[in-house]
Write a structure and sequence with these properties.
mainly alpha; 24 helices; globular; 533 residues; 73% helix
Length: 533
């Protein structure tokens, strides 16, 4: 039994290293070997401007996300605000909407020339093409990170701590300040770090809004350098090392732990809002309107217009869907994204199962290192990982500018999502069940098919959909790695929005949203609500 276990470990480690670690090492090697080009690139005026703009955007977005996510989590967990279940569901929906689609929606709403919000005014009052506009969009896209993390922390904390404070005479605000906030502080720090890193590494929304605003960020600057024929790869690699440093922030913050009492048997005593109950409800409804219904409605509405911005009855049509989806290039892009996402999800689940099984069901030395290495590409900015994959697969096995490098990129980026979901399912299986099957002669594929697969099927399905959803709508790596005759649904939307037809881009965005939200509903149903939003 030892030899097969050793083979599985080295097989999993080799796959993780080739998929995710070696590409990142090549980026560092390329930057280190650039010599003077490295220092010239990272200290240039353009790079410093991009760095400061990235820091401003990341800090601003983190602040917005914390201000929106943390109070919403507390209100829906610890107060008697009406429609609590509705808010807990709808406030998490932006989590599954790609930020670049949110950017498309807010461009439709707040374009100074044709935005819906500017229609009642003679001149553009709302202008999304600014640092403030981009910060607003990113904040609304990423506040669910804070909302979900803080909500989970509050739900796991023992409510008797807050009850004891109330019995000691502390008012609601004092309980929040002295008890609830300290309990949630680790969640605030870790979720804030995730928002900071996700914003710093984002590409889609910054390129759609930042280009029009004349603002460069590290991710968009890397893409520009990458497109430059004169030493572009060396310069892009040099700047990628700077962006990669942002990935260390949430890793360092995640190491902070704070002990709380968990597994409570009692329900928390809800804070009665009194006269503030209705105003708080209206405030949460306003957040749902701004974060969910307004942008999603704008996308769907624009998809039904012949000309963007014109709301006259004669401009409405549903034929745009047939025209856009019937176009051969759009159909190819949709099919490419569907089968790539399905294939990536299947491969990631197979590899994730092996990683999770080694981590949970064995005591092999290095198993936790294996899981950590598998998670590193997930924490790495997509632009950096894509650049590394290009350097790795440019030769002698040439995958660059083919559909296969996109498949490798999606698996490398998201395999940790599958591994995490499967680790939960595998960890819940009693060892007595597979041991009894082995004693009866079951082994290998038969053991997996008859014992393991049925027992962990919900986690397998969850892991599959957790990889499928982000892979289907992926933009950052796809726009860097796609070949001249290769497009995905994400890159097709980007091209349409930037160079062709905003209404056609909205049609594709509506299709993407329908598939992503539908996949989320299926995931929730099959997993009993454990996964999805």
């Amino acid at each position: 039994m030892r030899r097969p276990g050793r083979v599985r470990f080295w097989l999993a480690l080799g796959a993780v290293v080739v998929l995710g670690i070696l590409p990142l090492a090549l980026v560092v090697k390329k930057a280190a070997g650039a010599g003077d080009i490295f220092w010239e690139t990272v200290t240039s005026a353009d790079a410093l401007d991009a760095l400061f703009a990235t820091l401003r955007l990341a800090l601003g977005t983190t602040l917005v996300a914390l201000l929106l996510g943390a109070p919403s989590a507390w209100l829906t967990t610890r107060t008697d605000v009406p429609w609590k279940g509705f808010f807990r569901t709808t406030l998490t929906l932006p989590y599954i909407v790609p930020p670049y689609i949110a950017a498309l929606a807010w461009i439709t709403l707040a374009d100074p020339a044709i935005g819906f919000l500017n229609a009642p005014f003679d001149s553009g009052v709302f202008d999304i093409f600014s640092m403030h506009g981009l910060t607003w969009v990113m904040g609304l896209s990423f506040y669910p990170y804070v909302f979900l993390t803080v909500r989970a922390a509050l739900e796991s904390a023992d409510p008797s701590l807050e009850d004891a404070a109330r019995m000691s005479g502390a008012g609601p605000w004092r309980v929040v300040k002295d008890v609830a906030f300290p309990l949630a502080r680790p969640a605030l720090i870790s979720s804030g770090g995730l928002v900071f890193m996700a914003t710093a590494s984002a590409f889609g929304a910054p390129v759609l809004i930042g280009n029009r605003a004349g603002i460069d960020f590290l991710s968009t600057r890397i893409f520009d350098l990458w497109s430059d024929d004169l030493g572009g790869i060396a310069r892009a690699s040099s700047l990628s090392c700077l962006l990669f440093a942002f990935a260390l922030i949430p890793m360092l913050l995640r190491g902070r732990h704070h002990a709380v009492l968990t597994g409570q048997a009692s329900q928390p005593t809800l804070v009665r809002l009194g006269r503030a109950r209705r105003p708080v409800q209206v405030g949460l409804l306003l957040l749902v309107l701004l974060a969910v219904f307004l942008p999603l409605g704008a996308i769907a509405l624009t998809a039904c217009l012949r000309v963007a911005g014109d709301l006259s009855p004669s401009n409405f049509t549903l034929s745009k869907f047939a025209d856009v989806l019937g176009a051969s290039e759009n159909g190819r892009a949709l099919w490419t994204s569907l089968w790539l996402a399905a294939a990536a999800a299947t491969i990631a689940v197979a590899l994730g199962f092996l990683i999770a099984w080694l981590q949970v069901k064995t005591r092999r030395r290095g198993r936790h290192l294996l899981a950590g290495l598998a998670a590193l590409p997930l924490a790495t900015p997509g632009t950096v990982l894509a650049l590394g994959l290009f350097l790795l697969w440019v030769g002698p096995v040439r995958l660059v500018y083919t559909v296969w490098i996109l498949l490798v990129a999606y698996v490398a980026k998201h395999m940790a999502l599958a591994a995490r979901a499967l680790a939960e399912g595998i960890g819940a299986v009693d060892d007595a069940l597979p041991d009894a099957a082995r004693m009866s002669g079951a082994k290998g594929w038969f053991l997996f098919r008859t014992v393991w697969a049925p027992l962990v099927l919900p986690s397998i399905v969850a892991g599959w959909f957790l990889v499928f959803m982000p892979s289907f709508s992926e933009l950052t790596m796809s726009v860097i790695l796609m070949g001249p005759d290769l497009e995905t649904i994400g890159t097709r939307m980007y091209v349409m929005r930037e160079y062709k037809s905003p209404t056609s881009a909205s049609v594709l965005a509506t299709v993407v949203l329908g598939l992503v939200i539908g996949s989320n509903l299926i995931l929730r149903k099959l997993s009993g609500g454990r996964y999805g939003v």
